[in-house]
């Protein structure tokens, strides 16, 4: 069995999260808090958005927004919740093709930000006295960029 160094195992991705913040944490009780209530929170929706890539700063901002029970009949859900988090990602253009950055922002960045969103949803609902909201795990798609192969010139016959 071949042993590898920690540098080989933990090669950094060419896009890195350099700053993270919370834009909004909102919860409103629609009934008295009670962790024994078996009622589930309202349907959750998660939105993803990003700014255009800033090639001068080499950064892109990506936002995840969770809403649960916000537009539901308040008598049917224990609470209404809205959370929005923002991540700022820095791109190493020498290692990542610029034309794929927007696609990565909508597919790769949410996978990085989702655990932060999950923690805020769990913590906010439980700190307010409700059964904690546990967001589901996401499937991680395979995303690999292959460098183009050099074109070989064919010899004329």
Which terms would index this structure?
Bacterial Protein-export protein SecB; four-stranded antiparallel sheet; 157 residues; 3 helices; 29% strand; alpha+beta
Helix content: 10-25%
Largest sheet: 4 strands, antiparallel
**Uncertain segments of ≥5 residues (pLDDT<50)?**
none
What is the general shape? elongated
Instruction: Return the CATH topology.
Output: Bacterial Protein-export protein SecB
H/I helix tally:
3
CATH architecture: Roll
Distance between the termini: 48 Å
Structure described in brief:
The chain has helices at 6-9, 101-107, 109-127, and strands spanning 15-29, 44-50, 59-68, 79-91. The protein is of the alpha+beta class.
Helix and strand layout, with pairings?
Blueprint: H1 6-9, E1 15-29, E2 44-50, E3 59-68, E4 79-91, H2 101-107, H3 109-127
Antiparallel strand pairs: 1-4, 2-3, 3-4
Describe the structure.
- The chain has 157 residues and is an alpha+beta fold.
- It has one domain: Roll (Bacterial Protein-export protein SecB), CATH 3.10.420.10.
- 19% of the residues lie in helices and 29% in strands.
- A four-stranded antiparallel beta sheet has the order 1-4-3-2, covered by helices on one side.
- The mean pLDDT is 85.
């Amino acid at each position: 069995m071949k042993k590898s160094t920690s540098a080989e195992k933990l090669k950094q991705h060419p896009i890195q999260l350099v700053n993270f913040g919370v834009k909004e944490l909102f919860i409103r009780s629609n009934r008295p808090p009670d962790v024994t209530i078996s009622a589930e929170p309202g349907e959750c929706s998660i939105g993803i958005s990003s700014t255009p890539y800033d090639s001068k700063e080499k950064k892109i901002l990506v936002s995840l927004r969770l809403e649960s029970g916000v537009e539901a009949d308040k008598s049917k859900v224990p609470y209404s919740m809205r959370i929005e988090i923002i991540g700022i990602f820095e791109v190493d253009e020498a290692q990542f093709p610029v034309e794929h950055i927007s696609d990565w922002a909508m597919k790769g960045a949410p996978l990085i930000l989702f655990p932060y969103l999950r923690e805020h949803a769990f913590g906010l609902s439980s700190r307010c006295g409700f059964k904690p909201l546990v967001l589901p795990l996401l499937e991680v798609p395979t995303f690999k960029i292959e460098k183009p192969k050099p074109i070989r010139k064919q010899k004329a016959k």
